[in-house]
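User: My collaborator sent over this chain with a note saying "see what the structure looks like." That's all I know about it. Can you take a look?
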Amino acid sequence: MSRLKQNIKTIIFGTDTRVGKLFDEILIIAIILSIITVLLDSVSEYRQQYGQILNFAEWIFTIMFTIEYSMRIYCIKRPLSYVFSFYGIIDLLSVIPTYLSVLLPGTEVLSVIRILRVLRIFRVLKLVQYMGEANHLGEALIASKTKIFIFLFSVMNIVVILGSIMYLIEGEAAGYTSIPKSIYWAIVTLTTVGYGDIHPLTSLGQAISAVIMLIGYSIIAVPTGIVTTELHFSKSKNENKIECIVCEKIDLDEDSLFCNKCGSKIAKQ
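Assistant: Without extra context I'll predict from the sequence alone. Here is the result:
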């Protein structure tokens, strides 16, 4: 890697140097200001009075973030490792809405996704361990996907059956005009939301409603238990591991010198 690329990488990705930390601090301030710009532009009073200024500011921020995104790709050995990382995807999505607004006016409001870029403050403030906890949670959710799918499939079976039963018991007079609408009522009742737009009138229907509510409370603990178990396994598996600051790979050995995903030199915390 050339000296120029190495210096750029140190500034953009590093937080151990004074310049790198200053860059991240300025970046976070720019992100917050750009989000405020988008929020103010959505208020009709401010848009009518300061619309041109806000639009100009939005384009300035977008160009700045585009240059920053390009420099991040330029300075690492394996650009795709950054492009398809969490931050890489968020960085790309944060600049697309403004360019897209040229063809589809109004899409610039999607720029608020930039708020996710502020997560870099965890690195600036040396709170990487909290990001590690978030990564563990993500791994646990992915590992639990099959069990959660089966759980949700079972719940859907329950609401379809109960919704159909309520359609037969209550009928159109009580507002259960179709099986899909009855299923909607079953979902609202099972999740204990209870909008009240449809409710049973017969004693049998009310008894079934009470059962559905109790079932709703009891099944809340199921996905929680599944994810908690996987979270425990994830933490155990990744003990004494370190993270790459470029591609966010979190299962690197603590004595690693280079990341085996993007090839970047590991910065020891």
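A starting point for your reply to your collaborator: DSSP finds eleven helices and two strands in the chain.
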